[in-house]
Design a protein that fits this description.
heterodimer; A: 60 residues; mainly alpha; 62% helix; 0% strand; extended; B: 465 residues; alpha+beta; eleven-stranded mixed beta sheet; two-stranded antiparallel ribbon
Chain lengths: 60, 465
């Protein structure tokens, strides 16, 4: 995801979440989110076997 | 009044024998807090009235020779994310001052109370526990008793600083990605992050519920084990707490390390450590007779997955507060929480699946070894206000990365004791002693062995003299 895409994603998600952010807040958020993308890329690239349980197990 | 003993074990013995009263202990503690805490800023609230009332009750039991509990008269304090009856639970945020006071104590506070321990107050932390330095804009930074210009670590910085400064012998903190182990390392004391689900979390503010653990700090292993034993046991109020009976550890501390298969973690755990941190883990490994140095593949991926889970869960939990109180929210973490709340669900689900996968990988490793050793922090405590971590030529943002060595291991919920390694250096550093799930006894035995050998030691901070 490039910076413009991240900016657009955050703007749309903020609207969906009923978050009203100023331009300054949005820019600060973008800086942090870009760092998160960098870290998350390792998660997205990780070769996870298909047989790993698809979701946490809830026990009533 | 004779000299006030300093360890929890000594205090309990002295109170039990009538050598000193719980009230005398409390008055001495309150005086000490009043004298020293202005420099440390460990406490956000001192519960004087409650402390005196609890002390009088303990003294009455001693005089009446009724069953005197194991921590009789021992002063303690708790990170201010624990419910304390009559106080609003701050979780490090001034926004929470407006909350109604807690109607009852958190489960673990209640267990300490029932064991005769005396609550002295609530302790400073990073707001909502999202931090490793306890630089709290609303309540001020907690200062490292070994060097007041340095961080006490976080997010349980107040908890660690209070013990390291000799204010109280026991405190409670929490650890999601390192928040017991990091401050234990920076402040040079012992800390225990138990197995995930071992200790009940009822009555404590959550940060990232998938990863939150609660645990004690102390200046020696006997006190740490005694505290842990008192805290154990299932809790109907917490569905995440394991339904396991208490498995006491204190009596087994002298068992030593004979027969334990021990390995030092290299690879990732060396790459993100300074020479000082690597040396600490080598010293501990040698003292514990480690037979191997091993590398566990993909620890960076484990850490990344822990990061994503933390960001998503923490952000989701705080979204409403951010929506209505953005301006008052802690500046150090509000954008991190907000960004976390924007995490795509697919990332979060994948990170949780990775947790299952890594649980099995560590299970395989802990089938071959009983104990693993790694540094607790990449380096010693940084100066307050630092923004960068320098690691052998790498320059990383400080605040998200202090927990690099802690996160991959707590990610899969393993029990870990942080043990400070004895040194002539001014600033302490600790190692992680990592066991298999539910084997806190092995971690504590190893810590006790290091302590007996003089390899692990909680050095007296200048502030505590």
């Amino acid at each position: 995801m490039n910076e413009d895409d991240a900016r657009a994603y955050l703007a749309a998600t903020a609207r969906l979440q009923s978050l009203s952010l100023s331009p300054e807040q949005s820019e600060r958020l973008l800086v942090v989110f870009l760092r998160n993308i960098e870290v998350a890329q390792r998660v997205l690239d990780f070769p996870l076997p298909e047989e790993v349980e698809p979701a946490g197990i809830f026990r009533p | 009044m004779s000299a006030i003993p300093s360890t929890a074990t000594e205090i309990a013995a002295a109170v039990r024998s009538g050598q000193v009263s719980a009230l005398e202990i409390v008055e001495a503690t309150l005086a000490r807090v009043g004298r020293i805490d202005a420099d440390i800023n460990a406490f956000t609230c001192v519960t004087e009235e409650r402390a005196r009332a609890e002390a009088r009750a303990v003294d009455a039991r001693v005089r009446g020779r009724s069953d005197v509990p194991p921590l009789a008269g021992v002063p303690y304090a708790v990170k201010n994310l624990f419910d304390v009856a009559g106080l609003p639970t701050l979780a490090g945020s001034r926004i929470n001052e407006a909350r109604a006071p807690a109607s009852c104590d958190a489960t673990l506070v209640g267990r300490f109370r029932d064991a005769g321990a005396i609550l002295i107050g609530a302790l400073n932390m990073d707001a909502y526990a999202y931090g490793f330095t306890t630089e709290n804009t609303a309540y001020g930074a907690s200062h490292n008793p070994h060097d007041l210009a340095r961080s006490a670590g976080g997010s349980s910085g107040g908890s660690a600083a209070a013990v390291a400064a000799g204010l109280v012998p026991l405190t409670l903190g929490s650890d999601t990605n390192g928040s017991i182990r990091v401050p234990a390392s920076f402040c040079g004391i012992f800390g225990l992050k138990p197995t995930f689900g071992r200790l009940p979390r009822a009555g404590s503010a959550a940060f990232a519920a998938s990863l939150d653990h609660l645990g004690p700090f102390a200046r020696n292993v006997t006190d740490l084990a005694t505290a842990y034993d008192v805290l154990q046991g299932p809790d109907a109020a917490d569905p995440a707490c394991a339904q396991r009976p208490a498995e006491p550890t204190s009596a087994g501390l002298e068992a030593g390390i004979a027969g334990l298969r021990v390995a030092r973690l290299a690879g990732y755990f060396d790459r993100f450590a300074t020479a000082r941190a690597r040396e600490a883990s080598r010293i501990a490994a040698q003292a514990l007779g480690a037979s191997d140095e091993i590398e566990i593949p993909d620890m960076d991926a484990a850490r990344a997955a822990a990061f994503v889970i933390t960001a998503a869960e923490g952000g989701a939990l705080q979204l409403e507060t951010l929506r209505h109180h953005y301006a008052e929210f802690e500046p150090h973490s509000r954008d991190r929480f907000l960004a976390g709340a924007m995490t795509p669900a697919a990332w979060y689900v994948r990170a949780q699946r990775m947790r299952s996968w890594f649980r099995e990988r560590l299970r395989e490793v802990l089938g071959r070894f009983d104990l693993l050793i790694a540094p607790a922090t990449p380096d010693v405590a940084p100066p307050l206000g630092s923004d960068w971590l320098e690691l052998d030529g790498q320059r990383l943002p400080l605040r998200p990365n202090i927990g690099l060595l802690a996160q991959p291991l707590s990610f899969v919920g393993l029990p870990i004791v942080a043990a400070p390694i004895a040194s002539t250096a001014a600033l302490p550093i600790a190692v992680q002693l990592v066991g298999a799930p539910w084997r806190e006894d092995i971690c504590l035995r190893a810590a006790a062995a290091l302590e007996r050998a003089g390899v692990a030691r909680s050095a007296m901070a200048p502030q505590s003299r």
